[in-house]
Amino acid sequence: MPPPSDPAGRPPRPVPGLLAAAERHLRVDTPAGSAAATTRSHLGDGRCVGWYGPPTVGWQVAVDAEHADAPVPEALARRFGPADFWPRWTRTECLCKLADVPVVVWWRRHGLGIPPGTVAVWRTLRVADLVVTVAFAPTRPGRRADDEPFPRGASKSARRWPAAVRESPARSLSS
Q1: How far is CA 119 from CA 68, 99, 170, in A?
Q2: 86 in Cβ contact with 70 (< 8 Å)
Q3: How many whole angstroms separate alpha carbon 87 and alpha carbon 84?
Q4: Rounded to the nearest 10 degrees, how much is the dihedral formed by the CA atoms of 144, 149, 153, 158?
Q5: Both ends of the chain: CA-CA distance in Å?
Q6: What predicted TM-score, i.e. pTM, was given to this entire model?
Q7: Domain extents for the chain?
Q8: Integer Cα distance of 139 and 143 in angstroms
Q9: CA nearest 97: which of 143, 140, 39, 148?
Q10: What pLDDT, on a 0 to 100 scale, did the predictor assign at position 117?
Q11: Which of 92, 122, 148, 154 has the fewest CB atoms within 10 Å, i.e. is most exposed?
């Protein structure tokens, strides 16, 4: 018997299991050493955090990392508060990458928060001296995450996520 799919016709969801085992799929390396990663985040000290999980048909993945003990820039602390800043920051960066929305646009709309109805799922964890968030969102039906070119005349975010998704927040599977 085939696995059940949800009523919206989305593919089965391998993502919660991948997020639960995220530590096994993340590696910290040099940019050259992480070239085979599915996606990666570059750090100011020259390292990269790469995602090496298996392919997730119907899903796109993003990763963002920051130094856990880095001071919060004063202007950002004033605007968003210093409490739990780096986990909120890396989560926001991942959601922006998945929605293809510039972070400054996200800030104006949502701050470092999650808009209602977001279909993305994520996990934020510590990896060595880093705060790392891994997030997944469904790809548009009938299109792989790496398909190009997109139709002309639409913003990149409009081409990836429907308006309801671009304007809303996600469910966390964080630990």
Answers
A1: 27, 11, 5
A2: yes
A3: 6
A4: 20
A5: 33
A6: 0.75
A7: 15-137+147-172
A8: 7
A9: 39
A10: 87
A11: 148
In whole angstroms, give the CA distance from residue 13 to residue 6: 9
Cross-strand pairs, 49: 28, 41
Q: How far is CA 171 from the centre of its chain?
A: 12
Per-residue confidence in pLDDT tens, the chain, 175 aa: 333 334 455 544 678 899 999 999 999 999 999 999 999 999 999 999 999 999 888 999 999 999 999 999 999 999 999 999 999 999 999 999 999 999 999 999 999 999 888 899 999 999 999 999 999 999 866 544 444 322 333 334 444 444 433 333 344 444 3
Do 16 and 53 meet the contact criterion of CB atoms below 8 Å apart?
Answer: no
What is the Cα–Cα distance from 12 to 131, expressed in whole angstroms? 29
> What is the secondary structure of 63-94 as a DSSP string?
EEEEETTPPPPHHHHHHH-STTHHHHHHHHHH
Q: Yes or no: say if 82 and 112 are a contact pair by the CB < 8 Å rule.
A: no
- Measured in whole angstroms, the distance separating CA 16 from the mean position of its chain's CA atoms is 14
Q: How far apart are CA 3 and CA 149, in angstroms?
A: 32
Least Cα distance to 60 among 151, 160, 148 occurs for 160
